[in-house]
């Protein structure tokens, strides 16, 4: 036995006391490390939690730690067979994460400090419990990174793609359109692609749930990667179709529908249907969960029923509902879509001349008094 290797328990193998001692040996150093790190970097943890509470884009972060803990609990039978053997070389990446946090704090970059905090939590597991235990918890530990509220850097590109597709689809549909940047005008009104139109909320929600679904439903790494790739592409394309559909609904109804609260509802309902369809299709290629290695043999008199390793994905729907509930919480519409009390200023004649275009060989001139509507 290695000098720094700690046995699970001196109690008879398989007894309830031995099982409890095993769990304590494994959890105690990890729990102490987590508590100390969060206490030392509490300000960063509070900033993360505040972002979860105030932003619907990152509200899923509230349940990510709970899901990661549940995923680790599913591996408990594997962990019982592993010794607690601290791996001191992990002090190097742990210290590197601490240095990154210090640089991020000096630069007031919340994304850097929050990523560094999660990295310190992750690297503390092999540091205090051992590499073998950390390897058994690879996915639960990696899943913690979904709790970091980052993704705003994708906004400009996603907004550009949404505007490009919407304008192209309108032209294919025969609707005359004039575009200036992220704003475009059609005969029935003026629309603009704002941050809420980018689809970053759909992308992050789909990636968070899709990664969990792939881990629970497949054993092949290629199938898992393929489903994660689908979870990235599908919400982006779905957001394009959603934006185009909202503009067409407003255009065909003379702006009587899809311009107020129903604007948001139609978008989330459409995305919900798309995500459910994605899961239903992915379930056709589902693989049985990998059998969990058996722990110490249990005597017949010790426990009447052996502890289930939960090999099947029967708890998945409850997790998906929790994540979707936290992610799809609607924001206050009044803060996202303020209605002006007065009409916008009349465009100049030079601007009106620039907004004249040819569609089907016939000139079309933009109405001068149209209010831009955001594509939420």
Walkthrough of the structure:
With 376 residues, the chain is mostly helical. It folds into two domains: 16-147, no CATH class; 152-287 and 339-374, no CATH class. 57% of the residues lie in helices and 6% in strands. The chain has helices at 16-40, 42-54, 64-74, 76-80, 91-106, 110-129, 131-136, 138-143, 155-172, 200-217, 221-252, 261-283, 316-327, 333-336, 349-354, and strands at 178-180, 183-186, 189-192, 356-359, 362-365, 372-374. The strands form two sheets. A four-stranded mixed sheet has the order 1-2-3-6, with no helix packed on it. Strand 1 (178-180) and strand 2 form a beta hairpin. Helix 2 (42-54) crosses helix 6 (110-129), helix 9 crosses helix 11 and helix 10 (200-217) packs antiparallel against helix 13 (316-327). It is elongated and about 70 Å long. Residues 1-11, 291-316 and 326-371 have low confidence and may be disordered.
Topology at a glance:
Blueprint: H1 16-40, H2 42-54, H3 64-74, H4 76-80, H5 91-106, H6 110-129, H7 131-136, H8 138-143, H9 155-172, E1 178-180, E2 183-186, E3 189-192, H10 200-217, H11 221-252, H12 261-283, H13 316-327, H14 333-336, H15 349-354, E4 356-359, E5 362-365, E6 372-374
Parallel strand pairs: 3-6
Antiparallel strand pairs: 1-2, 2-3, 4-5
Helix pairs in contact: 1-2, 1-6, 2-6, 5-6, 9-11, 10-11, 10-12, 10-13, 11-12
């Amino acid at each position: 036995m290695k000098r720094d290797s700690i046995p699970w328990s001196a109690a008879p193998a398989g007894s309830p006391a031995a099982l409890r001692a095993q769990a304590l040996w494994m959890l105690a150093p990890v729990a102490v490390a987590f508590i100390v790190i969060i206490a030392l970097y509490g300000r960063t943890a509070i900033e993360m939690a505040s972002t979860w509470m105030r932003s619907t884009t990152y509200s899923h972060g509230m349940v990510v730690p709970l899901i990661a803990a549940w995923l680790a609990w599913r591996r408990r039978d594997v962990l019982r067979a592993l010794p607690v053997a601290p791996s001191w070389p992990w002090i190097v990446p742990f210290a590197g994460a601490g240095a990154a946090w210090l640089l991020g704090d000096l630069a007031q970059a919340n994304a850097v400090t929050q990523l560094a905090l999660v990295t310190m939590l992750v690297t503390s597991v092999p540091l205090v419990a051992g590499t073998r235990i950390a390897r058994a918890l690879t996915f639960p530990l990696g899943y913690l990174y979904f709790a970091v509220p980052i993704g705003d850097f994708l906004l400009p590109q996603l907004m550009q793609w949404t505007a490009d597709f919407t304008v192209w689809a309108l032209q294919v549909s025969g609707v005359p359109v004039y575009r200036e940047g992220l704003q475009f005008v059609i005969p029935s009104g003026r629309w603009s692609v704002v941050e809420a139109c980018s689809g970053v909320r759909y992308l992050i929600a789909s990636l968070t749930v899709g990664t969990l679904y792939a881990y629970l439903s497949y054993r092949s790494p290629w199938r898992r990667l393929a489903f994660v790739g689908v979870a990235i592409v599908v919400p982006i394309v779905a957001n394009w179709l959603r934006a185009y559909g909202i503009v067409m609904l407003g255009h065909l109804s003379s702006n009587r529908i899809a311009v107020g609260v129903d604007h948001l509802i139609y978008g989330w309902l459409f995305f919900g249907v798309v995500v459910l369809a994605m899961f239903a299709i992915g379930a056709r290629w589902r693989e049985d969960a990998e059998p969990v290695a058996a722990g110490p043999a249990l005597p017949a008199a010790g426990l009447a029923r052996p502890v289930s390793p939960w090999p099947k994905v029967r708890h998945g729907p409850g997790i998906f509902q929790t994540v979707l509930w936290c992610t799809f919480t609607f924001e206050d519409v009044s803060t996202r879509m303020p209605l002006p009390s007065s009409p916008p200023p009349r465009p100049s004649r030079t601007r009106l001349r620039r907004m004249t275009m040819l569609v089907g060989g016939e000139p079309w001139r933009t109405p001068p008094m149209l209010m831009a509507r955001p594509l939420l």
